Amino acid sequence: xxxxxxxxxxxxxxxxxxxxxxxxxxxxxxxxxxxxxxxxxxxxxxxxxxxxxxxxxxxxxxxxxxxxxxxxxxxxxxxxxxxxxxxxxxxxxxxxxxxxxxxxxxxxxxxxxxxxxxxxxxxxxxxxxxxxxxxxxxxxxxxxxxxxxxxxxxxxxxxxxxxxxxxxxxxxxxxxxxxxxxxxxxxxxxxxxxxxxxxxxxxxxxxxxxxxxxxxxxxxxxxxxxxxxxxxxxxxxxxxxxxxxxxxxxxxxxxxxxxxxxxxxxxxxxxxxxxxxxxxxxxxx
Length: 285
Known about the structure:
This protein is an alpha/beta fold. It has helices spanning about 45-60, 80-100, 110-120, 135-145, 170-185, 205-210, 230-235, 245-260, 270-285; strands at about 10-15, 20, 25-30, 65-70, 105, 125, 150, 190-195, 225, 260-265. The chain contains nine helices and ten strands.
């Protein structure tokens, strides 16, 4: 990882054994291998469907395949670690065999699961809990030396939408990330991506406050990930639903990219890649 103290457009990050420049934003294509995800639950549960979706992400220009085996939507219950491992390990094995050069990110908040998928070739650990649900997660990520996505939330998904009280949401989030980053740096974790956690323990208004102040997170000199794809902050505002939220997703991704996002996590890879291409063209002039 680039050791510069100043975050710059040529910052690099190591995925697998390769070094990648973040001069251009990266697209994370979502692969939900669950039956109850809020948008595409149940579509990618067979091996054939999983491989087809992974191929689609790569073919459309996605940089990272982000794999989840449990829904973290509001009200969802997390599953036991052994069950999560039983679901994820065969998927990682399958995708690593079919796409040996793909960057694989795995959604989990459990250290035991992180270790299991890392052993099978996962490249990134994407933890919605920011180490809050498993006290061993930070130590495990430090031992694995994998890039770690540090997200903000409060409470388990089953109760998080009852925990949306903040005196000053931006101030509290800045403190949260400051404390977590200090712990990760102390343990020797080098590659960290910050995720504000849109929709996690946040009201619609709070989500837009965070979006408006995205540049505040630049104080950390770490890459920023934005994941708002087809979320309720879009379709509830527009009195619509997730199926009709692509236009709103593109609008917010555009705003995020223009305000410092280096990763966007999406269901619709082609549209996200096109958005980045247009913004890159604008930035030339």
